[in-house]
Amino acid sequence: MPVAAARALAHDLVVHVVDRKAVQEALCGLADWAFQFSSWISLYPPYALLLEVQGSFTLFGGQAALLKNLRTGLAALGYKTRLAGAPTPLAAFSLARCGSEQMIEAQHQLAAVLAPLPISALDWEQTLLDRLDGMGVRRLGDALRLPRDGLARRLGQQSLLYLDRMLGRCPHPQDLYQSAPEFRRHLQLVSEVEQAQALLFVLQRLILELCGWLQGQGGGVQSFTVRLLHRERRHTDLCIGMHRESRDAGQFTTLLRERLERLDLQQPVSEIELCAGQAVKLDARSLDLFEKADAQEQIDLLDRLRARLGDKAVQGLSAIAEHRPEYAWSYSEPGVSRKDSRDQHRPLWLLSVPRQLETRGGCPHWHGRLKLQASRERIESGWWDGRDIARDYFIATNPSGSCYWIYRELAGERRWYLQGVFE
Amino acid sequence: MNLDTLLQRPDVWRGGQISAAVKTVSSGFDELDALLAGGWPQGALTELIMPHQGIGGLRLLMPALAQLSRDDRWICWVAPPHIPYAPALVSAGIDLSRVLLVHPRARQDGLWALEQSLRSGNCGAVLAWPTLEDSVILRRLQLAAEAGNTLGFLFRSQRHVRRPSPAALRLQLEPGTGGGLSVSILKRRAGRAAGAVHLDTSLQHGSLALHSRTPTAAGHTQPQWQ
């Protein structure tokens, strides 16, 4: 029915134009996701997907279990679907097309099961269906009863081949869907979103697709990028990184949630994109780690902290064999540390910047007069890199019993500084 | 809910009853272990109240932290007031590769990071210096430490001493004579507040190792090249 005619019948009609490109993309996304259920997938555009599932029954613990998994997963993605199964692709397709959610296992049952379906179950051009209708053929059973040569003459050899393939009388080779080596999914939002947290709901769907794809690829990723597109070609990139490769949707969602909670959206978002590089095989080391619950959780804490606070806010610590106290340590990647330390008496706290001390009567003061211990340590070092120091270090106690690490410059004004606290 | 079910709750404790179920980690100081009936309580918050810094509150934890750093869990420092000085940590026997430093920018982030670290189960010990007074938040932290089976140490200033606290253990630290440290119990789950012990954590090099009896003292504090 033309749009004009429809409008005449219903004046408050809202017309949505189908975005064929978006539909095709969604179907590819679904196919990528479905690789976790089967490695033999064909696209039946615009709205159907064909999976060879016989080979996966054992893996999932039977047909019922596989279907249940499939249904739960599809519901989580937010799709309304109809599932039908049959020994031939076209039979399964026809059943699904008519909303007849059956699982036919034996080929000899096909003709009987398909017979009551309307001829619109056939993926044929409208002119062919009209011609069938003109011949008084309303159901598939009627079409199948027609003499073969007459049918071929009236509807073409192709139509006969279609029916033969549907009933399994001749083979039906399929174009297998090949997923892209990298994951990239794009989604146009129905309306612009101004709250970062509201994006999570939509992104969750893309994450599920990503994890399905990763499972199909038998791998994981160490990072993925969410691009939020604004008006005028501006965008915001959120890169979510992990300690180790993973394909855990729960972990991805948690990390992304932390990041979104911290995000201050400058402009509303109209489109989103989720990209991940090539899947990396989860090697023995990673798999071993997955089995060790502790280690897995440990990664989670580190990733969680970093996702929310930023990479630089979470650090490990290294000790470096260096005379100058301020260079005898450094931050490092958590879990990886240098431990080159001289066994010297050092305070547990180091001030990030030494603090100049007031002197009264030649004695340094810090919350009272500081009493110096007898031992003195002279440190002169660093002439080669221009950051040389020449200092005398002392351990000093103030009247309230606090203990500090202080030094006096050997050159210049010979000022006193507080550099450490013996906590 | 009847009394029996109420008493089954893990967060209900009965005064005067020394609970054998509380797991502890040795503090490394015999006198303190005796006072604490075993050592630092695991899966709980311990508040260390100090009149001012520089009296050796952190040093008190070193033997236990050294011990804990040998497990596959983090020693997590949330928003430390200064830089934990790596050479001193190595000398105290701590495995630096288990040290995790968290520097949140905002206060709210600090509390979040603290709770996450306590709760995750990935941290052997979590150290923090919160200035908050809200006992509801402290209670959350106590529950998080229970969930994560973590030793949570909160360093608190003297002004917090009169505030009620849900922490399982509260200790008052005072500078002792001769550079040592005096420790008294303000509150604990099992038993009443008890008298003070004086610990020699004095500054003479190696004295900490001499007076503590963890395996740290034997080998780990001495670098191999010596």
Any idea how many domains of chain A?
3
Quaternary structure of the protein: heterodimer
Tell me about the biggest sheet of chain B?
Answer: 8 strands, mixed
Low-confidence stretches of chain A: 284-298
Amount of helix of chain A: 25-40%
Element-by-element helix/strand order of chain B: HEHEEHEEHEHEHEEEEHH
Beta-strand portion of chain A reads 25-35%
Beginning-to-end CA distance, first to last residue of chain A: 83 Å
Characterize the overall form of chain A. Answer: elongated
User: Could you say which structural class the secondary elements and strand pairing of chain B correspond to?
Assistant: alpha/beta
Pick out the low-confidence regions of chain B. 203-226
Strand percent estimate of chain B: 15-25%
The mean pLDDT of chain B is 81
Order of helices and strands of chain A: HHEEHHHHHHHHEHEEHEEHHEEEEEEEEE
What does this molecule look like?
The complex is a heterodimer of chains A (423) and B (226). In chain A, 35% of the residues lie in helices and 26% in strands. Chain A is α+β, with helices and mostly antiparallel strands and 423 residues long. Chain A has 3 domains: 17-167, no CATH class; 183-309, DNA polymerase, Y-family, little finger domain (Dna Ligase, domain 1); 345-422, no CATH class. In chain A, strands 3, 4, 5, 6 and 7 form a 5-stranded antiparallel β-sheet that branches. In chain A, strands 10-16-15-14-13 form a 5-stranded antiparallel β-sheet, with no helix packed on it. The termini of chain A are far apart. Residues 284-298 of chain A have low confidence and may be disordered. In chain B, strand 7 (123-128), helix 6 and strand 8 form a beta-alpha-beta unit. An 8-stranded mixed β-sheet of chain B has the order 6-4-7-8-3-9-10-11. Helices cover 28% and strands 24% of the residues of chain B. With 226 residues, chain B is of the alpha/beta class. Chain B has helices at residues 3-8, 30-35, 62-68, 86-91, 107-120, 135-148, 207-211, 215-220, and strands at 24-25, 40-41, 44-50, 74-78, 83-84, 99-102, 123-128, 151-157, 169-175, 181-188, 196-199. The model of chain B is unreliable at 203-226 (pLDDT under 50). Chain B has a single domain, classed as 3-Layer(aba) Sandwich (Rossmann fold). At the A-B interface, helix 14, strand 8, strand 9 and strand 10 of A face strand 5, helix 4, strand 6 and helix 5 of B.
